[in-house]
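Q: What structure does this chain adopt?
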Amino acid sequence: MDRMDAENDRGGKVMENTKISSIQLFLLNIGFLYGSTVILSPAISARNDAWLAVILGGLGGALLVWMYASIALLNPTKTLVGILKDRFGKYIGTLIAILYIWYFIHLASLVFRNFGEFIATVTFPETPMVVVIAIFAALVLYGVNSGIEVMSRLSELFVPFIPVTALITSLSLITTRDITAFLPLLEDGLAPVLNAALGFVTFPFGETIVFLMVFPHLNKKENLKKITAFSVIVFIVLSLLIFFRCITVLGQDLLYRAAFSPHLTALLIPGANVEPLIDINLLIGGGIKISICIYAAAKALSQVFGIGDYRKLVTAVTTFSVVLSVWVYENQLEMFEWAQKVWPYYSIPFQVVIPFILIILSLKKGKIMTGNY
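A:
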């Protein structure tokens, strides 16, 4: 018999049988953060100063992730839906929860489209994009229906390949580099760096708000802040490694113009074909990111509408995400423009405003309960 999460929808209290370990949550975080950032990195808009945008955005992202972890620790038995209902009241909390469900589904559809565009453009150019997305969706559907525990075990198996492959690829290109390609510093001033850093904060760090639907599964919640902090550090280092590899091999102009620069860089390795490894890495990160988003959306829907098993909703959520992914952009250029110019501002209410209010209300309630307020 499958292990199921019994949820008390009224109080949002999670009485769980399924638990994940600290290392599993860490690897899920790494896979999620890696996700589609290599395809659509907002930091690239800062051109040769993108490494500064990565660092500044990483610091801002660390603050957001710390805030999400703090919200979870202040409400250790509740998912995001339960926290919203508890802090905003049943009706307003439910309305905001429905908005988050849309946000999670929308995010899943965007990542579906990112990887559909990548595979249909680079790997299988003769295959219709909708077919690529549908096959990918079938794999995601199987993983989400298997439960968070299985998804976590798969992350243990696959996510370590991401940094290993990135390191191997970087070392393989060490003789073809122009180490001055990222100079001069701040050639276009600080404004482009700050704009790119804002994009990097919201994509991908702010998107980890979705993990408020996952954090209650952690078996040792006292490790939560350490896990999230370490995952942020590792991802920043990985992002810097990939950026410096790409810009020193491709140069500033080609890096900025190339649609999928990490893939292009891999093609330049002399005497070796590591292109499939890069593709697999992107599929691992994208698969984890989409799976977490669909899991969170289906779980939130089941809590909002009092459905006992979230699995009953997974197929419908996945299907809607696939349909939306095909419809959401008209072409690849629109996809890149949306990621850089629209997504950061569209995400701010979900990633910053509402979580900030939640942590204030949670701290206030904590003081009242302890008699210190």
